[in-house]
Task: inverse folding
């Protein structure tokens, strides 16, 4: 189908034109992009031969797509891989047909075929796109990139930089390990790699200039690795989480925690000294701490310029970003749903309903499943029955309990929710997120308005857990 026909068929179905209750008045022309899913290379700077990867446009990450808030985005995706694929716009509140979930919102894009994604970038912030077809393999092989939606009034900084974090499981022979779908990864912490990259590179330093103010957009594109970053000698201020503004604050315990799928925008003032190096440590796992890279200061003297206050020579305090147009949930009238996540090794799940049939843990593992939501496991994206049916426009609270021994970043498509409570206590920032990290045994409440009609995926973003059954559909309408 060529583009004109495709758009025509979209128009005749009345889809792809507007989201829920948002007005579709456009002040800007559409931004057009092309993504070609194709074989390419990764780890090109290790001094060893590059490894074969699956890419958007030849390298990993794929191109950064940048648009202004309010613009219409049109992306033509061509599949030159040997496998089917789709593209999911993680965190973007868009019409269901554009969400990129195979068999749920669209048929897979077969090799040689094209698909056009089109939506309005109603929310500013840091988003990312990735394959949603057999994602534990396709995202791991490199099918991801970032989408930046620029605020109408972006904060004044010297540089706006993105770090996409990932890890790779590389064999002694220098290839991507083919151990996809391993039962061990699936039932434990997921596929953790042995080579860590920032923007696809293993470089051990990030050049910085004394006196500059940086906006750093952190994105975790790893299948399973959780990062907790500490910027030694610096005081990063968090200004947005999963794209959405939050009152500027320093990270809890000085660590910026990013589970797979999550984003965090921080502002860093380069208060270090010219010529010095300051490690950025990764401290999530007490037994495996390491230096991600060093902030390497140029020897040039501290810069002084128009951003700094001319009297004190200090950078001005940070103003909060303007809120995105997300509807505020009404907690008084909200309906509450309880959701319990179970399974995995060292858990209490002995049996679950696999596509409705009681199945014991041994059989589940044999069938590549290990995780359940409210005792149910979905086998695949085909013919999934919604686990929740929500009324359009109604406010909901999801009271989620992690009844497992593992961490799980839980992601809901098509919506943004407020993280209101953790273990019964109100959260200090009441942050908007699309992915919330649950610690073992933790209970979390999130609240949102079900304002975007359609069938939306709800799943763990540790992609091996997702494949291992930790997913469901939330139907809004
Ligand atoms: Cu980022 Cu359903 O995924
Ligand atoms: Cu999980």
Result:
């Amino acid at each position: 189908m060529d583009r004109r026909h495709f758009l025509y068929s979209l128009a005749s179905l009345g889809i792809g034109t507007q989201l829920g209750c948002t007005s579709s008045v456009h002040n800007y022309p559409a931004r057009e992009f092309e993504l070609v899913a194709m074989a390419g290379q990764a780890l090109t700077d290790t001094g060893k031969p590059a490894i074969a990867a699956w890419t958007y446009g030849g390298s990993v990450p794929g191109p950064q797509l940048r648009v202004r808030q309010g613009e219409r985005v049109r992306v033509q995706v061509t599949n030159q891989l040997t496998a089917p694929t789709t593209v999911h716009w993680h965190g973007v509140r868009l019409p269901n047909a554009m969400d990129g979930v195979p068999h749920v919102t669209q048929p897979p894009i077969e090799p040689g075929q094209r698909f056009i994604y089109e939506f309005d970038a109603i929310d500013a912030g840091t988003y990312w796109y990735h394959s949603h077809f057999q994602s534990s393999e396709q995202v791991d092989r490199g099918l991801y990139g970032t989408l930046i939606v620029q605020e109408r009034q972006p904060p004044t900084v010297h540089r706006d930089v993105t770090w996409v974090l990932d890890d790779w499981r590389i064999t002694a022979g220098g290839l991507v390990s083919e151990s996809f779908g391993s039962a061990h990864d699936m039932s434990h912490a997921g596929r953790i790699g042995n080579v860590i990259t920032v923007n696809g590179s293993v470089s051990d330093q990030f050049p910085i200039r004394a006196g500059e103010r940086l906006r750093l957009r952190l994105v975790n594109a790893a299948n399973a690795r959780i990062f907790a970053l500490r910027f030694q000698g610096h005081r990063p201020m968090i200004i947005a989480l999963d794209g959405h503004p939050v009152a500027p604050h320093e990270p809890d315990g000085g660590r910026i925690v990013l589970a797979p799928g999550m984003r965090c925008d921080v502002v860093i003032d380069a208060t270090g000294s010219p010529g010095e190096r300051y490690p950025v440590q990764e401290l999530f796992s007490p037994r495996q701490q390491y230096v991600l890279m060093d902030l390497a200061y140029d020897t040039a003297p501290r810069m002084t310029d128009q951003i700094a206050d001319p009297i004190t020579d200090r950078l001005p305090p940070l103003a909060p970003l303007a809120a995105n147009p997300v509807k505020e949930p009404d907690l008084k009238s909200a309906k509450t749903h309880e959701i319990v996540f179970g399974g995995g090794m060292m858990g209490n799940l002995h049996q679950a309903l696999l596509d409705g049939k009681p199945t014991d843990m041994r059989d589940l593992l044999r069938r590549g499943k290990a995780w359940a939501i409210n005792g149910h496991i979905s086998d695949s994206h085909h013919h999934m029955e919604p686990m929740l049916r929500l009324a359009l426009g109604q406010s909901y609270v999801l009271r989620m309990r992690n009844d497992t021994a593992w961490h799980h970043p839980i992601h809901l498509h098509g919506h943004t929710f407020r993280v209101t409570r953790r273990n019964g206590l109100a959260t200090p920032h009441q942050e908007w997120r699309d992915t919330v990290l649950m610690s073992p045994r933790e209970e979390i409440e999130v609240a949102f308005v079900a304002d975007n009609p359609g069938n939306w995926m709800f799943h763990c973003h540790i992609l091996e857990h997702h494949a291992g059954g930790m997913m469901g559909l939330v139907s809004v309408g």
Notes: The pocket of copper (II) ion (ligand 2) is lined by residues 408, 460, 462, 465, 470 (CB under 6 Å).
